[in-house]
Amino acid sequence: MTTQATTITVYVPRDTTALALGAEQVAQALSAAAARLGRPLRMVRNGSRGAFWLEPLVEVLTPAGRIAYGPVQATDVPGLVAAGLFDGGAHPLRHGEAGSIPYLRDQERLTCARAGVIDPLDLDDYRAHGGYAGLRAALPLAAVEIVAAVTAAGLRGRGGAAFPTGIKWRTVLETPAPQKYIVCNADEGDSGTFSDRLLMESDPFCLIEGMSIAALGVGATRGYIYLRCEYPRAREILTAALRTAYAAGLLGADLMGSGRRFDLELRLGAGAYICGEETSLLESLEGKRGQVRYKPPLPAVSGLFGAPTVINNVITFASVPVIFERGAAYYRDFGVGRSRGSLPIQLAGNVARGGLVEKAFGVTLRELLYDYGGGTLTGRPIRAVQVGGPLGAYWPVSKFDTPLDYEAFALAGGMLGHGGIVVFDDSVDLAAQARYAMEFCALESCGKCTPCRIGSTRGVEVIDRWRAGDQPARQESLLRDLCHTLTHGSLCALGGLTPYPVLSAIDYFPEDFARAAAAAAAGS
Amino acid sequence: MNSSARERIAIRPEPGTDLSPAERAAVLDAVAAHRDSQGALLPVLHAIQERLAWVPSRAVPLIAFELNLSRAEVHGVLSFYHYFRQAQPGREVIHLCRAEACQAVGAAALEVHARRRLGVELHGCSADGRYTLEPVYCLGNCACGPSIMIGTDVHARVTPARFDELTAQGAAAGGSAPGRAAPAAPGGGEP
Q: Fewer CB within 10 Å, N or C, chain B?
């Protein structure tokens, strides 16, 4: 072998999912194996590319590119090394060049382009892959031009509400105040979503850069990232990234040598789902109970500590750098209708090939579930999917041709939300899922408005009576009436949208309620 | 209740004297580190819990005094957030995900198994003081559930057998260490 003396570069992800699947043990085994062979090893702890079904995905740098192996367990390492892993040798777990894996190759990565490719904490690596080109392009622009570019790109809030980002920023820009804030909503509480986490763990500087551009765009000098405490790895990585950015003059008093100030601080949530709602998040940042505020005033006018505040989701901010690096038109030319650009979609639950799939808007659920997802993990038929988190509708197979597009989803009676798709096979009981939706609302309600606080508990009781066969027709009409009250009487989306999973379960899967009621009647 | 609380203040002008030295230091250090930041209460509570593993209710008066807040405000925040704990937990906290993506791959069965295995209800602490079992609603590992987090380590695709393995490892690592008494009040929540 001619490669004996050269240093081998190996990539082993340090993302939460990769670690949860044993990446740390794999890294140790690889180091030990290289030491035994006397081959110098450079190990890069990258983030994840998002093909979680292949994690831990080990890559080895070769003249033919980064050759990927996965999923690798520590016990596979001796065999892999014997097969010549360090030189890209053949093995059943070998997938060829990482970027050519069909799952990854066919994606349209605008926001998560660097995820898994770079060392998330290596600023030079970030810059070498286009990092900070966006901020550099934005620095000479006037604030109005920055806001105009975001508007022209057609970017809408990726947290779920899909409000046009440019309009939100313009409101903050046009509201005069001595102090304005940029707040990142990193309280990714929806089950089935992990794109925020993946982005923060795999490309944290991208978020920092996006928030910095927002600060220039609206004239803010302070920002906060409100991160959920259930993400300890993201916390570690963000903490280190912030320190590095400060040390490099990319945060602080003299942003990239421009003389402009932007200070950014990481704050932790404390396990309250409601704090993903923007006004409750602001209350929490102020050190209070995370209770929803009345709107108006909008946060853009009176937000954090009463000051004009841009509050956006992680993916929204992380989509900003590419708009300035490549131009608003470049970004806008992806997508369909009024849904421009790309959406990092998350395939979760009972799915064979789960992970992050970033595609331009317009891709159908069917393509995602079968072409990317490969059907269920259990191999049974897909019976239902829940799109958009715990407040999203449960959809049957008949709706799988719906394109991912905010308006198309709304028209079909659903919502795209944060782009999480949870897959269920035919063993799912939708009556139980409907009950859980009410139970979750009761657990997480902030308590401020009655429909949500009381209605959710009553909802659990009504569903229990229905499933127990106690006057089913009466319970159904009562539940529908209750859902109407929640929809129209709640202060925020938690109470307002909990009827989505409940009503969709009743409408599309009535047999599950009938079966439970009939079984109860037969048993009594 | 009210009158006795008043008397306490009168008798004890300096709050926090009923805390142990370690608890008192945890509170004062947390306050010192965050006093100047706006909206300091959550960072302070996090810092205390990180050090003590819980936030004793009797620390509330001192936190309130130091941050110039009312005790009601501090108690209100402490009790609002699921993550903050007012009872001493076991030596390790297991967060078990109960949310939809994990439900789709067997989280409900895992929950039943975990409760039986540890002999606890959710929020409860095992009789040997080793584990507290907490529900959590998403760990962001939704493509590879069911997920649990032990300490700050997330574990993926946790079957009941894998759960037993993980908790047995925990027992081997730190289980029989003598001298650490079981918490006086196991867990909060349901008995």
A: N
Res A79 pLDDT > 90: yes
pLDDT in tens, A461-519: 999 999 999 999 999 999 999 999 999 999 999 999 999 999 999 999 999 999 999 99
- Whether B81 and B136 have beta carbons less than 8 Å apart is answered as no
Residue A417 within any structural domain of the chain: yes
Number of domains chain A contains: 4
pLDDT per residue as tens digits for the range A279-325: 999 999 999 999 999 999 999 999 999 999 999 999 999 999 999 99
**A273 in contact with chain B, both atoms CB, cutoff 8 A:** yes
Domain spans of chain B, in order of start: 2-80, 92-175
Level-2 CATH architecture, domain B92-175: 3-Layer(aba) Sandwich (3.40)
Chain B CB within 8 Å of residue A265 CB: yes
Distance CA B180, CA B167 (A): 18
β-strands A58-62, B153-155 pairing: unpaired
Partner-chain contact B82 A436, CB within 8 Å: no
Cα–Cα dist A95/A425, whole Å: 28
Q: Is position A2 within any domain?
A: no
B105 contacts A17? CB cut-off 8 A: no
B37 min Cα distance to partner chain A (Å)? 10
ipTM attached to this prediction: 0.96
In tens, the pLDDT along A178-189 reads 999 999 999 999
Q: B34 at the A interface (CB within 8 A)? A: no
Which of A52, A190, A423 minimises the CB distance to B144? A52
Q: Please, which residues 370-389 of chain A have a Cβ atom closer than 8 Å to chain B?
A: 377, 386
Peptide bond into A78 cis (omega under 30): no
A175-200: b (≥16 Cβ within 10 Å) or e? beeeebbbbbbbbbbbbbbbbbbbbb
d(CA A91, CA B182): 50
Q: Say yes or no: A393 and A507 in one domain.
A: no
Å between A481 CA and nearest CA of chain B: 25
